Each structure stands twice: as structure tokens, then as C-alpha cells.
Amino acid sequence: MPAGVVKRVLLASPRGYCAGVERAVETVERALQLYGPPVYVRRQIVHNAHVVRDLEERGAIFVADECDAPEGATLVLSAHGVAPSVYANAAARRLNTIDATCPLVTKVHVQARRYAADGATIVLIGHEGHEEVVGTTGEAPDAIVLVQSVEEAEALELAEDEPVAYITQTTLSVDETAEIVAALRRRFPHIRAPQSEDICYATSNRQRAVKRLLGEVDLLLVIGSANSSNSNRLVEVAAAGGIDAHLIEDETEIDEDWLDGPETVGLTSGASAPEVLVTRVCDWFRSRGVTEIEPFGSAYEDVAFKLPVELRRAESPAV
Prior knowledge:
- The protein is of the alpha/beta class.
- The chain folds into 3 domains: 8-17 and 201-296, 4-hydroxy-3-methylbut-2-enyl diphosphate reductase, catalytic domain (Cobalt-precorrin-4 Transmethylase, domain 1), CATH 3.40.1010; 19-101, Rossmann fold; 104-187, Cobalt-precorrin-4 Transmethylase, domain 1, CATH 3.40.1010.
- The protein contains 11 helices and 12 strands.
- It has helices at 19-35, 49-58, 84-92, 103-117, 131-137, 150-155, 174-187, 201-214, 229-240, 275-286, 309-315; strands at 8-12, 39-42, 60-63, 74-77, 96-99, 121-125, 144-147, 164-168, 219-223, 244-248, 264-269, 292-296.
- The chain has a 5-stranded parallel beta sheet, sandwiched between helices. A 4-stranded parallel beta sheet has the order 3-2-4-5, sandwiched between helices. The chain has a 3-stranded parallel beta sheet with strand order 7-6-8, sandwiched between helices.
- Helix 4 runs parallel beside helix 5 and helix 8 packs parallel to helix 9 (229-240).
- The longest helix is centred in the first third of the chain and has 17 residues, at 19-35.
- It is flat.
- The relative contact order is 0.19.
């Protein structure tokens, strides 16, 4: 059955797994090898349903709260980071805790603690309820104010002599965040900023890749789960550029009505989506007669993170 009038599919580069996700997923896999199942994981290790199901099949048990893991069990903390209270609860339950927090998220936590220690009010740019925002806020709950939009930045009321700093969630829209930061800088000229931006390299790179792709495609498909912040931002980038875009878990969620008109389809994936899902979507198009499937652009990411120290010590006691 033909896929509408689609003639070709262009693959964005870079796409898919980032170093933090690779590290987090490998952490659970290695913990299962080292300790045997079950290994408990607090929340989704990364925001991708396929990854979670695969790890469940290997013996991982995902729990909503650290207190849901049996006393003395092995518990892996997700890539999104947690509040200090989580570590305290885990210690009280004598859990063998392995911290798979992305190092780039840890950097934001460290900044929050430093700003709070200096007595600053901290403006956290992010999405309310996202696990990363919850964890970061837990570092200094009395000092952090969440801002989600330019409008909220404009409405923020602080004393004129009050020291203020900002930090951001790592998976935001680069363009929207820049607008919020500009508003904060205008309203609070002495606001302190991170030494380097908090939005992670992978989020920025994937958004740039989509922007480069937009002039070549009529439709963009983004592989990622609905709760994946960085995947949703890719859809928004395309929409802002005037291109119809849809977020899909995998090939089963493609609506063939979307393909009635577009000749060139762009395909990318969020930072927590494994490449096997891209292959499956490409095969879906091939089965419908699309033979021109090729990469667009070229980008190489050489970032790599060491596994959590708790795991390295357990695997090699001399470490």
C-alpha cells in the first residue's frame, strides 16, 4: 500500500540517544548483570516506553518512590535527578543506591546549591511537574521560583536589592528559553547566569538539526514518548518553522492520512529514543514503496560519560 505520495524520507543528524541516556540505560543493564534481578529503578530511567519495557523484561522493576523498594534492595536513580530527600530516604532503607543522574543535570543541581548558599533567589526556567524540575527544586526549595514563560518572567516580583540568579531545565526549547532569559535580564540587569548554558548539548544539537531539515521536508515525524520533554520540543521547533509535525512512539502510531500530500518526510528521534525505532519507521516506509531514505546533514557527537561511581566500585573494588 503506497504511503500517500511520499517519495523520500530524510533522517536528521544528530538524533536519538545522548550520552546521559546511554549511561543511564547501561547502568541498569550492568546492575542487572552484577546483582541479578530484580533491580529497582526509581521512576522511568529515561522517558521512553520502549526502553522501560525492555528493561522490565530483563528484570528491572520501576517504582514511583524510593520507599517502594524493599529494604536492602538495589535501587537505580533515573537520569533526571532527584531531590536530596530521596538520598536520605534511600539511606534510611539501607538501599544499595546507584545514581544514574545525567552529569549535566547534576551540574544544574550544583549551581542551585551555590546560588542558594550565596543568598540569591533562584529563577528556575522549566516545566512544572517535570521530574528534572522537581529534583532541582528540592536542592533549595525556599530559594527557587519556577518560571515557565516570558509572561511569567515579566510578572515576577522581586525586591530591587535582592540578589537573583537563573538556572534552566536541560531539555528546553533553545529559542523560547532565550526569550525568557532576555526578559529576565531586562527586568533584573544584575541577574547571575550559569557559566555555560544549562540546556544540554544533545537538546541543542537535535533542535538545530531539525531547523536545518525544515527547508527540505513537508512533514516531520519525531520518535519519542509523550512524556519526553526534549522530543516534544522537536515537534514545537518544526511547528514554529511552519512544518506539520507529529510525535510518535513507533511506526504503529503513523497515521497514513498525514502522508496524503507530503512528498518528503523528515524523521528524527528524541534523546531517549533508541535507534532501532528509527530503523523500524524506515522499514515501515520501505514496505509502502518508499525507496529513497537517506541521512540529511552530518553531525558527530563524541560526548561520553563514565558509569556511576557506585557501579564502577562494585565492578572493580580497587576503583
